[in-house]
């Protein structure tokens, strides 16, 4: 049995995606060149990343898109399970739990959470992490519902707490993923999700001293 | 007037520190080689970092040590100003405000907050950020006081919220520093400090759902 041309292309693309994600997660985004990814993926052609994705920006988008596409159905299921009566805790859970459920479903080690943490602190590619929300209908539903369920906050406080909340999710998931990969995790993904939801509620409900 | 040998060494060392901090902050820790730092600092000898610091680990420690030594007196002053009647808010302020006051005192642009954010997500050097606390008496006083003022939490919840709180401080300061450097900051360092203290109180006071 021979593999057709389009299957070969899909296999190579998947191999490059997984290799790049692992290298980015472990070494940082800027450190890893397209050439090194191509080499590590065993591609004779050092320009394989350029050929298959166009460039690093498109490669990063493809990695994010791949995972977000898998998280969306989990978010949709959770939204429909919870029904119409949703408070702040339920909305925040719909933001966090599909991510922890997804990471758990992949087994150990995963690299996606550390990959996201690397993007977050990358001066050049940082904004990428949140442009994807524009294309996920479920995420827009969750964020809209969550903002409506929050206590009334001055816009500038809402904005900074939103950034704090996002950073908290990204770095907490990355810390746990690192602990899992090192065999040092004392918690489950499910528990990490619960701890995050509790803390995020604290961030959103915290009284505002000055504005 | 000629510059003596020891002054020359101190000048070169200071120049390497500032150059390295800026490059690490803007590009990440692993991306930047000792050779590139030496070159960017205009050192004819490409091994200047090795000669003056020993290696990257010692260089990172020297950058952290330089700033922490300057933050300590601010922490000491704040502790003595606040007097003996301190609650959770005052202790958390003693953790946050000396950092924001220090960053403000440096003028714009600063690099230290982004440098800390880069270390935080660096798989190899991440733990460096918190080993320094062992040598600052003021920071130990603040952390001891803060932990004693917190509501009673199961040890494992205390641990994860501690990590969340640290990450929140580091990334929020880095985000603001980046906005300042880009001329896009809509807040002051003082206000960032207040927003952080409010949100951190929320994290620590959030009820625990499951343990």
Automatic annotation (TrEMBL), chains A, B:
Gene3D superfamilies: Tetracycline Repressor, domain 2 (1.10.357.10). Residues 16-63 form the HTH tetR-type domain. Residues 94-201 form the PsrA tetracyclin repressor-like C-terminal domain. Coiled coil: none annotated. It holds the Pfam family TetR_C_30. InterPro entries: Homeodomain-like_sf, HTH_TetR, PsrA_TetR_C. Keywords: DNA-binding. The keyword Iron does not apply. This is TetR family transcriptional regulator. It comes from Gordonia prachuapensis.
